Amino acid sequence: MSSSQTGSEKNDSTMHKGHRERLKDRFIAEGIDNFAAHSILEMIMFYSVPRRDTNPIAHRLLDYFGGSLIRVFDAPIEELVKVEGIGQNTAILIKMFPEVCRRYLLDMRETGDIIKTSKDAAKCFVPMFIGRTNELVVIMCIDAKGKLLFCNSIFEGTVNAAAVGIRRFVEIAVRYGASDMIMSHNHPGGTAIPSEQDIMVTKKVSDALKTVNINLLDHIIVSGNDWVSLAATPTVSDLFPKRQGFGF
With contact defined as beta carbons under 8 Å apart, do 127 and 106 qualify? Predict the structure, then answer.
């Protein structure tokens, strides 16, 4: 501490340090479930803003992004740094949280898991879209017994028949010796209601897979924690084979 600091500055520094230690002790004792949104952001910034009171910065973040913790985490870095007190290091730290969360959940999923229903598939798919602000297409290949052979993203961008490379679906399914495939994509910031483009792409993928005797069992649309099975949607269910657990 510099000898040039005033008594007021020393008191502020001591107060902030005491507040930080209390929040840390509370986290160690209770976990984060009962923390208010501003307290979570405030504590995150302890590690990128070492010598300032992060409480007002946390409130400014929430005010800027409509009071929503999710909107703060999903905001691009170039928007985060527009908030007073947020530098690039803090913006990167904030953006890491949804990315690490997604990686954590994906690492819990293992090739070899058994996928018997649309619900099983959705449990694998939903974590893959955490923190994603663009549309992403993910496919899952399974064998005749439902064993998971492959699950990963294959395309990022607006889902339409022209942009999505239908041949890639077939190539991956054949490469992994799949009997069946399930596809998924997200509607970031929207609802999980299928669009006409979603239905058109589904039909093209299903038709392409049939040429190599592989079934498309479902197309699951994800928005946040919500998801919709097209195989369970009466108006388009005829695009899928009737398989117990997948829409029927």
Answer: yes
| pTM: predicted TM-score of the whole model, two decimal places | 0.70
Q: Looking at residue 3, what is its pLDDT?
A: 42
Does residue 101 share a domain with residue 163?
A: no
Same domain for 120 and 227, yes or no, is yes
Asked whether the beta carbons of 178 and 141 are under 8 A apart, the reply is yes
Chain centre to alpha carbon of residue 141: 20
Closest C-alpha to 220, from 212, 230, 211: 230
In single-letter form, the type of residue at position 246 comes to F
Residue 117 sits in the same domain as residue 101 = no
Backbone angles phi, psi at 223, to 5 degrees: -140, 110
Mean pLDDT of 219-231: 94
Token digits of residue 198:
């979603």
The whole domain housing 186 covers: 111-239
DSSP class of 235: T
